[in-house]
Every structure is written in structure tokens, then in C-alpha cells.
Amino acid sequence: IMFINKLSAQKKGVYKKETPEERRVLIKGGVLCGICLFAGCNLQQYAFVFSPVGKVGFITALYMILVPIIGIFFKKRPRPLIWICVLIAAVGLYLLCIDGSLELKKGDIVTLLGAVCFAFHIITIDHFSSKTDGVKLSFLQFLVSGMLSFVCMWIFETPELKPILSAAVPIIYAGIMSCGVAFTFQIIGQKYTEPTISSMLLCLESVFAVIFAWLIIHQTLTAREISGCAIMFTAIILSQLPQKRKKEEEIING
């Protein structure tokens, strides 16, 4: 269907062929996004060997604080209110994920390095998503990340067919939904929002994980977890209000 639509658009003069410069931008963006995604995902997976899931999730999600800090060096200065919302969301995330002291160990340092990679991933997507096709950029980043991961698999591990087949369903789900769908939507969505707000929205992954664990597998929610979810949602709503008002003023003023 896409091929037929493309041919139809070419006949009508709507379809525009990529220039060599646009192709170079696409390839550069795909390679850089793929490297960041590869490094972030694999460092996070390695961290699970040393640290509990909740702690890894919290430290990884600290990229929402790293994104505005890194963005300053790329002339991406978020509004003062966004900084406040990021700090509020970090408090909510702490209540949601951490139950006890936050002491940095080997696994936590590895996770923090992964968070830095994810922060650069968001900044890189922000830079290239407005300059090229989002779906093509997503495809290239998966290709690069997959190739690098495949090589490292043979270097650092001993893959066996039986364990891979036994985990086929989770692998397929993670490949199609978590990677293919979610990261592609991230690239498309970042065309229309600030990178800092994008990082906050992505951190809602932890919130939805808790909510669906309660709805589907009937895990109980503690008062601490409910408070964390509520605080994070509050931060997201606050981050959006000024932007909506600005748009309404533009509409009124014509």
C-alpha cells in the first residue's frame, strides 16, 4: 500500500526525492541515534546483574534531569518552570522506585552511564527529527543498534539457541512493541515538543508499569507508590499549562 501511494504521489508531483544532503543527514542521524540507543540499553541491561529493578529504573530515569543540563550546551534552554517540574517529577520517581537508602554501587554507576547515553539519545533525536523522516530515522537507529548488539553478543556472551527460544515471547514483544513502536513514536513525537518535556513523558514508563501491574496481575499499590505516581502526573500537567496558554494567546491575537 505504501509503495502504491508513493507511486501515485510521484505521478501527481507530490512526492519529493531525497537530495544527497538530506540522505547524509538521515544517515548521520540514524548512526548517532543508534549508537546512543545501543550504549544506553546495553548498559542498563548489564546493570540489572548488580542492582534491583526499582533502583535501576530510578537512576535510568534521571535522564530527565540530565537532558536540560546537557541541552544548555546545545543552546536548548528550558523555561524556569520546566526545571521546577523536572525536580518535582524526580521526587515522585524516587517515591515510586526506591524503598530504602540510595547508595551508589557498581551497578548504579553503570546505570548512571546508561542514563547519560539515553539523555544524549533524546538530544540527538531532537536535533535530527525535524530535519529528516522520522520512520526512516527510527529504522536506521534500530539497524545500527542491532548490529552493534549482535557483535557484542558474540564477544561478551555465549549465546545458546534453547534459552533464546524459551524467551521468544518476551524477546518478540520487546522487539516489536518496546523498541519498534515505542521508540518510533518517540522520534515522531519529539518533532512537536521540547526535549526536556519529552524526557519527563518517557519517565511515565515507571508510573504505567506500577498501574498495569495493579490492574493486570493484581499487585498492591502502597501509599508511597500512589504518592509517587500522583506527584509525577502533577509535574507533567504543570509542564504543559504555560505552553497551552501561549498557544491560546496566539490564536486569539490571530
Describe the protein in words.
The protein is globular, with a radius of gyration of 20 Å. It has 254 residues and is mainly alpha-helical. Helices cover 79% and strands 0% of the residues. Helix 2 (20-47) packs antiparallel against helix 6 (106-128), helix 3 runs antiparallel to helix 5 and helix 4 (63-72) packs antiparallel against helix 10 (195-202). The longest helix is centred in the last third of the chain and has 30 residues, at 223-252.
Task: Give a brief rundown of this model.
With 254 residues, this protein is mainly α.
Query: Which percent band covers the strand fraction?
Result: under 5%
The best one-word shape is globular
Give the C-alpha Rg.
20 Å
> What summary fits the major beta sheet?
none
- The number of helical elements comes to 12
Q: Secondary-structure element order, as H and E?
A: HHHHHHHHHHHH
Mean pLDDT: 79
Unreliable stretches (pLDDT < 50, length at least 5) are 1-14, 244-254
Class from helix and strand fractions: mainly alpha
Spatial gap, N to C terminus = 39 Å
Write down how many β-strands occur, each being a DSSP E stretch of 2 or more residues.
0
> In which range does the helix fraction lie?
over 70%
